[in-house]
Amino acid sequence: MKDRYRVGIVGMGFGHKVHAPAFHAHDRFELVAVAGARPGTAARVAGQAGARAYETWQALVDEADVDVVSIATAPHMHAPVALRALERGRHILLEKPTAFDAREAGQILEAARLAGRLGAICHEFRFAPGRLAVKDELRAGAVGRILAVHATIHSPGLAGMSRAEVGWLARAETAGGMLGATASHYIDGVSWLVGEEIVRVWADLRAVAAHRPAAGGGSERVSAEDSYVVFLQFASGAIATITFSLAGGGFGETWDVLGDAGAVRLDGQGQVHVAQAGAQPRAVEVGTLPPPPALPGADPDVRTPPFMKLLDRFAAALDGDAQASADLPDLAQGLRVQRVLDGARLASATGGAVRILP
């Protein structure tokens, strides 16, 4: 057990916006190294955090004196960085989705086992106050036996996405697309709420903004989805649906958990209500998060506070706390989610349901 764990971040997109301020502010971590595809951003973050900027991710992994490598690159780079970090004896924290596909996710899991190092996935929204309140109600038996979970997400990003140049997030060959970017969170979320493994998936993935500006001028057809509907079946027979839509306006996220004794709803304003037969719906007290930290001279990001809660558990798991390890989205869960993502892509391509192997 250490007072503080030394951290290097690879990837200066989400790594710059969320990972860096979270690690810099957390009292159990010390941010000492950063690297990314944009050297200017890495140098700026290093200056703000009092860290060192490395020219390449390989140099950071090989040369930096770090206990943990936090990986926030495009998904197709997760496995190369993670495997090298584990080989060098580092613990890893991986952005979602875990990897390009389940084969790579399995390689990372096995490498961590052989190295005896901790690996976790950034499913930080498990620790958002509304979802924690829903989970508490389910543990208390508010809905009885869970029959279905429905997550509906309206994100008002279509206009901005249509105008943005095509990058890795719009390309299937770099594991881009909203399925990996967002459904990975929701698949983890519904399986965490239900407490069971997913055994079957059906999906419809599509690009509503099918053409986007190309970097060299003109337009380019995107190869990754920006919207989807996913239907999941659990081992008990319970089901879940996840609908993600980019639109001109948005109503946020709505979660409904339905059981044989009642229902719980988390609405787009973060309020939680329980409905049970013969009783008036009741509101549930929802906790709050502290204000988001920021690097000196930078703007805060509202996604940072739940990430800080994930880091609380990650630090405790590094200390050897068994309960914290059980609460942490680990590499085994990352592989399970990756199998569902792979199955969803296959289901959408073939038009049929896909069974998920255990």
Characterize the structure shown.
- 36% of the residues lie in helices and 25% in strands.
- The protein has 358 residues and is α/β, with parallel strands linked by helices.
- The chain folds into 2 domains: 5-124 and 307-330, NAD(P)-binding Rossmann-like Domain (Rossmann fold), CATH 3.40.50; 128-288 and 334-355, Dihydrodipicolinate Reductase, domain 2, CATH 3.30.360.
- The strands form 3 sheets. Strands 16-15-14-13-7-12-11-8-17 form a 9-stranded mixed beta sheet. Strands 3-2-1-4-5-6 form a 6-stranded parallel beta sheet, sandwiched between helices. A two-stranded antiparallel ribbon has the order 9-10.
- The two termini are 34 Å apart.
Q: CATH architecture of the largest domain, please?
A: 2-Layer Sandwich
Tally of alpha and pi helices:
11
Strand content: 25-35%
Q: Give the number of DSSP strands.
A: 17
Q: What is the rounded Rg?
A: 20 Å
CATH fold title of the largest domain? Dihydrodipicolinate Reductase, domain 2
CATH superfamily of the largest domain: Dihydrodipicolinate Reductase, domain 2
Give the averaged pLDDT, no decimals: 94
Characterize the main sheet: 9 strands, mixed
Low-confidence stretches: none
- The helix fraction, in percent, is 25-40%
What is the H/E string? EHEHEHEHEHEHEHHEEEEEEEEEHHHE
Distance between the termini: 34 Å
Structure keywords:
358 residues, alpha/beta, Rossmann fold, Dihydrodipicolinate Reductase, domain 2, 2 domains, 9-stranded mixed β-sheet, 6-stranded parallel β-sheet, 11 helices, 17 strands
